[in-house]
Write a structure and sequence with these properties.
The complex is a heterodimer of chains A (597) and B (78). Chain A has 597 residues and is of the alpha/beta class. Chain A is built from 16 helices and 22 strands. Helix content of chain A is 34%, strand content 21%. In chain A, strands 1, 2, 6, 7, 8, 9, 16 and 17 form an eight-stranded mixed beta sheet that branches. In chain A, helix 1 packs parallel to helix 11, helix 3 packs across helix 11 and helix 5 crosses helix 15. The radius of gyration of chain A is 23 Å and the shape is globular. The N and C termini of chain A lie far apart (60 Å). Chain B is mostly helical and 78 residues long. Chain B is globular and about 30 Å long. Classes of the chains: A alpha/beta (597), B mainly alpha (78). Chains A and B meet through helix 10 of A and helix 1, helix 2 and helix 4 of B.
Chain lengths: 597, 78
């Protein structure tokens, strides 16, 4: 079959914060750049980020990058690579000020500087006291950031291919990356985007879970494409959860509700947090509350017909206070749980929020894989940034407001690396293999011709329920073992999905089937990596790896201070060392310690 | 020229989960029954920024464009 071919210096997949920041670097350097995005750029999920972006500007309280680095390494439970972390925190001020110059409407102090607010986990003097480090634009930081970056890209003549869905990565026999295949939704035609450099900035895959705060577009497209092309996925067992999402919907109920007096109850109406955290009760830390909720559900004290959630009760609060202090929450509960919280408690469940793992990269945004004895060999022509990538700065758990920083720093860094490699003559347009589009065309043809197949929605739901039950916020050996078998069954079903609508143009059923192909790769990577990691660390907490004198918090540095690499082929696992050595001599390595707050 | 309904359906994929959930419900209940004029109104509404759209759906922001009001009403039905 004849497939149209387009040629560029660089192709970027994804137009959220990381993709737009990378694109800007390339376009301003004069590279012919194509940005492929399945939704309009300013409808990317970066819009949902509220908290702010971390930078040790020290505008309100004293601050410096050393303290930010310490907080990030500690947050990561020492699984983050200290070279990448040093690079990120040192670059923070530069990328934030740059954004200010692009017109980002940051909140201001009285003397006109960028206003900074305190945030959980941010400290001065190595954990001594809270610090004001988060730069925000009201509660729309991500939205404002995306608009500033988009406008700047329009000015720089970046070429956008909007409503184009990337399908597969193209590699040659040496393993070099030569671009991607993509389908234009408006025509249903598959094209080849042939380029000297390919940058993935496709965001996270939070939709692998039944309860997720992520928008529907977060289907891990870049991770699926990378995995199918033989690139391993790193540290996929680490997912950040929030304790209270509306059951069955995922929409967040802010911690403020418990702050205002909200109480968590089980099926018998018991205030169960009194048993788990007698002092702080419902205001205990996120991970303690999440684990307690899961224990109640697992031990049969969950609520509802499936006993799969608990209740957040504010019926004892005065209605006028709910209306005054929590109006947004009341609306969310009515909209998504069908319950007025003045009259009845809200069903809630721990909810997936952020993916720490991803496509392995170094601090330059180059994708790296084990090759010839070097675990960190760059793949020629391939770069990644943002939530889809694992640099690794978040390690086993992400520090709040470091996600927007990650996409700015590593979006820019990936862009700079491409420009450098381009200008030094390290990148060239290599000949396409004859079968460059075959895999994508075969996937489309299979969907076209599948008979007596499985239903996309049912398979996706089976995947989401399996992930939620077997690899949720609190993990159990037996459930993980069963989970591996179960997710492989679901993956088998996903090979035979059938769609009713066979139309060529604007076929959303086909798009959803293609997205499921990507999600399922991430789900397998997560379950298999989680089952194998026998310790507790950061967001990966196992019932059979408890807090002991030998292994504080269940963390086992002797055996598990290492990154997981999952390969799609044979579901093989490999491991590589964590880089505990910073990038420069400006700072000593942050020594291993127990993570307590 | 008539509007491609598949294109409008895809525009209902948004940046915020809240809107995805509202539109999922709306697509199931109403989308196939909308007239061409209603589809045109919806297409126009979908050009809004996500936070503004969510504000109109959750009632925190008034809808000041007459041709959007019917669709906002349908989207608001719990």
């Amino acid at each position: 079959m004849n497939v149209a071919k387009r040629t560029f210096d660089a192709v970027i997949v994804g137009a959220g914060g990381a993709g737009l920041r990378a694109a800007l670097q390339l376009s301003e350097a004069g590279l012919k750049t194509a940005v492929l995005t399945k939704v309009f750029p300013t409808r990317s999920h970066t819009v949902a980020a509220q908290g702010g972006v971390a930078a040790s500007l020290g505008n309100t309280t004293e601050d410096n990058w050393h303290w930010h680095m310490y907080d990030t390494v500690k947050g990561s439970d020492w699984l983050g690579d200290q070279d990448a972390i040093e690079f990120m925190v040192k670059k923070a001020n530069e990328v934030v000020v740059e954004l200010e110059h692009y017109g980002m409407p940051f909140d201001r102090t009285d003397n006109g500087k960028i206003y900074q607010r305190p945030f959980g986990g941010h400290s001065m003097n190595y954990g001594q006291a809270p610090v004001m480090r988060s730069c925000a634009a009201a509660d729309r930081t991500g939205h404002a950031m995306l608009h500033a970056l988009y406008q700047r890209n329009v000015r720089a003549n970046t070429q956008f291919f909007v409503e184009w869905n990337a399908l597969d990565l193209i590699r040659n026999s040496e393993g070099d990356v030569l671009g991607v295949t993509a389908i234009e939704m408006e025509t249903g035609e598959v094209s080849i985007f042939h380029a000297k450099a390919t940058i993935f900035a496709t965001g996270g895959a939070g939709r692998i879970y039944y309860s997720s705060t992520n928008a529907f577009i977060n289907t891990g497209d870049g991770l699926g494409m990378a995995a199918r092309a033989g690139i391993p996925l790193e540290d996929m067992e680490f997912w950040q959860f929030h304790p209270t999402g509306v059951a069955g919907a995922g929409v967040l109920i802010t911690e403020g509700v418990r702050g205002e007096g909200g109480i968590l109850r089980n099926s018998s109406g018991e205030r169960f947090m009194e048993r788990y955290a007698p002092n702080l009760k419902d205001l205990a830390s996120r991970d303690v509350v999440s684990r307690s909720m899961v224990t109640e559900i697992n031990e049969g004290r969950g609520c509802g017909p499936d006993k799969d959630h608990v209740l957040l009760d504010i019926t004892h609060l005065a209605p006028e206070n709910i209306m005054k202090r929590l109006p947004g929450i009341r609306e969310i509960s009515i909209q998504f749980a069908g319950i007025d919280p003045i009259k009845a408690p809200i069903p809630v469940v721990p909810t997936c929020h952020y993916q720490m793992g991803g496509i392995p990269t170094n601090y330059k945004g180059q994708v790296i894989v084990p090759k010839d004895g070097n675990p960190n060999t760059p793949v020629v022509g391939f770069y990644a940034a943002g939530e889809c990538a694992c640099a690794s700065v978040h390690g086993a758990n992400r520090l709040g407001t470091n996600s927007l920083l990650d996409l700015l720093v590593f979006g820019k860094s990936a862009g700079e690396s491409v420009v450098e490699d381009f200008q030094s003559g390290n990148l060239s347009l290599k000949p396409l293999p004859a079968d460059a589009a075959d895999l994508s065309l075969a996937r489309i043809a299979r969907l076209e011709n599948q008979k007596n197949g499985t239903d996309v929605h049912e398979v996706r739901l089976a995947m989401q329920r399996t992930m939620q039950k077997h690899a949720g916020v609190f993990r159990f050996n037996e459930l993980l073992t069963e989970g591996v078998a179960r997710i492989l069954e679901v993956a088998e079903q996903s090979l035979h999905t059938e769609i009713g609508d066979k139309s060529k143009v604007w076929n959303t059923a086909r798009t959803e089937a293609l997205e499921l192909d990507n999600l399922i790769e991430v789900a397998k990577a997560t379950m298999i990596s989680a089952e194998a990691r026998k310790e507790s660390r950061g967001a990966h907490v196992r019932d059979d790896a408890p807090d002991t004198a030998e292994n504080p918090n269940g963390r086992d540095d002797k055996n598990w201070l290492k990154h997981t690499l999952w390969y799609r082929d044979g579901n093989r696992l490999d491991y590589k060392p964590v880089n505990l050595k910073p990038l420069s001599d400006d700072v000593e390595p942050i020594a291993l310690a127990k993570r307590t707050y | 020229m008539s509007i491609n309904r598949g294109r409008v359906r895809w525009q209902c994929r948004r940046a915020l989960l809240e809107l995805d959930l509202v539109f999922e419900r709306f697509l199931e209940r109403h989308f196939d029954r909308l007239s061409d004029d209603q589809i045109a109104d919806l297409d126009d509404l979908l050009r809004c920024e996500d936070h503004d759209l969510w504000g109109m759906v959750n009632g925190s922001k008034a809808c000041e464009t007459d041709r959007w009001k019917e669709m906002i009403g349908l989207l608001r039905q719990p």
